[in-house]
Design a protein that fits this description.
Blueprint (H helix, E strand, L loop, with lengths): L1 E5 L13 H12 L3 E7 L7 E3 L2 E6 L15 H4 L4 H24 L4 E5 L1 H15 L3 E5 L2 H8 L5 H10 L2 E4 L2 H10 L5 E2 L21 E6 L8 H12 L4 E6 L5 H10 L6 E5 L3 H10 L2 E4 L14 H8 L4 E4 L4 H4 L7 E3 L4 H13 L1 H18 L2 H18 L1
Parallel strand pairs: 1-2, 1-5, 2-4, 5-6, 6-7, 7-8, 9-10, 9-12, 10-11, 12-13, 13-14
Antiparallel strand pairs: 3-4
Helix pairs in contact: 3-4, 8-13
Length: 396
């Protein structure tokens, strides 16, 4: 089938590492015989490209100098910075809708798959109208939390988008529930895979005295990293432990100040953005992976937690908060340990259990790996998508 993926952003070069799970999904669908193309926004004048063999159609929406609503940062975060970005959004919506319609007047597609339906269902509707193709809209969680808790005026738009779509997918049971609070209809669960893949073996536990913890993700409020810093402060009083933080984001200055204020510079390292090979080394060498996610001040939380899938694929024990879609991945005391959100003491106790019990760490790592194999492997995900697309085309 010929499938158009509509998305906020896509890698701007072969070395750009944004949305790795989406890149991998498209790559594997193409390997399965589908002709998948991407429709997305420009960035500072960037035109149409071919990235990793995938044709990418980019639409322009503003003069080059100011064309930065997407890619470097979430558009929702950009919107907080003043009227310029609000005006950019209006231009983005108008230009994107027109460009999607024009593309699908020139080329016919069998399926239109819209990611982040708020606001991209506008693009999907225009594209589907132009080539009479059925649409799939795919939710990843964050946009639904914002709508349900902050931007309630957008609910009628999403209700229309959900009702009008040929099929709806979500990354977790948590996201399904959020969708059905807006409009009650069947939703297919198609989780993220992991760009890291699923590994048959990983490094064995190491005898080093200092235990290595790992966090990977954007440094934003919903990740709950301050609670992990506080937990490390508690742990460091009783055992040698080191936390590696991989990622950047708007919360980084405050986190660095928190580390300084607690004199934890020797116990916590900020690595920023790193290469895939470096990230693989961090996963394979850590003694435990921690995701202390919270429901943030906007009502946003983790729709799934793809970094947990990556850590589990390395057979690493994981500790995470019991919020959002994390509960699908981390089954307490089976595939990992779950703790209450915003509770540094409970987080420290759970980490200490894993670090001081090799048998528990090995059991959790093995069970987590098996859970990923059965439910989150790329073969399972691509099979679900393939069946969904074929059923939708047959019904059209």
């Amino acid at each position: 089938m010929k499938i158009l993926y509509i998305t906020t952003a896509y890698p701007r070069s072969e070395s750009d590492i944004i949305t790795p799970w989406l890149v991998e999904t498209i790559t594997r669908l193409r390997s399965a015989g589908h002709d998948v193309r991407v429709f997305t926004s420009s960035y500072r004048g960037l035109g149409n490209q071919t990235i990793g063999g995938v044709p990418v159609s980019r639409f322009r929406y503003f003069p080059r100098r100011w064309e930065d609503l997407t890619h470097d940062e979430m558009a929702m975060d950009r919107m907080k910075r003043g009227m310029r970005y609000k005006f950019l959004l209006v231009s983005y919506l108008l230009c994107g809708t027109l460009a999607a319609w024009r593309l699908c007047r020139r080329e016919r597609f069998d399926i239109i798959n819209v990611h982040w339906p708020l606001p991209h269902s506008l693009f999907g509707h225009a594209a589907a109208s132009a080539c009479r193709a059925p649409t799939v809209i795919s939710f990843h969680g964050a946009e639904l939390m914002v709508v349900n808790n902050v931007v309630r005026l957008a609910k009628p738009f999403l209700r229309w988008a959900i009702r009008a779509a040929g099929a709806v997918t979500a990354n977790s049971t948590h996201t399904v529930a959020a969708i059905q609070r807006i409009y009650d209809r069947p939703v297919h669960i198609v989780p993220f895979g992991t760009a890291a893949g699923v590994y048959s073996e990983s490094d064995p536990p190491r005898p080093e005295k200092t235990k290595q913890l790992l966090f990977v993700g954007r440094l934003v409020e919903r990740k709950g990293v301050p609670y992990l810093v506080e937990a490390v402060d508690i742990l460091a009083r009783n055992m040698p432990v080191h936390l590696n933080i991989v990622g950047t984001g708007p919360e980084e200055p405050e986190l660095r100040e928190l580390v300084r204020s607690r004199a934890l510079e020797q116990s916590i390292t900020f690595h920023g953005r790193i290469s895939p090979d470096e990230l693989a080394r961090h996963y394979s060498k850590c003694d435990a992976f921690v995701l202390p996610a919270i429901v943030d001040s906007r009502g946003d939380t983790e729709g799934l937690g793809v970094v947990l899938i990556e850590a589990m694929s390395y057979r690493r024990p994981v500790i995470a908060s019991g919020v959002g879609g994390i509960v699908d991945l981390v089954i307490d005391e089976q595939t990992g340990l779950r703790v209450p959100q915003k509770d540094s003491q409970a987080l420290a106790r759970a980490i200490a259990r894993v670090l001081t019990s090799p048998d528990l760490a090995q059991k959790l790592g093995r069970a987590g790996f098996e859970h990923v194999q059965q439910n989150y492997s790329w073969s399972a995900i691509i099979k679900r998508l393939d069946e969904l697309y074929r059923d939708l085309r047959a019904a059209a």
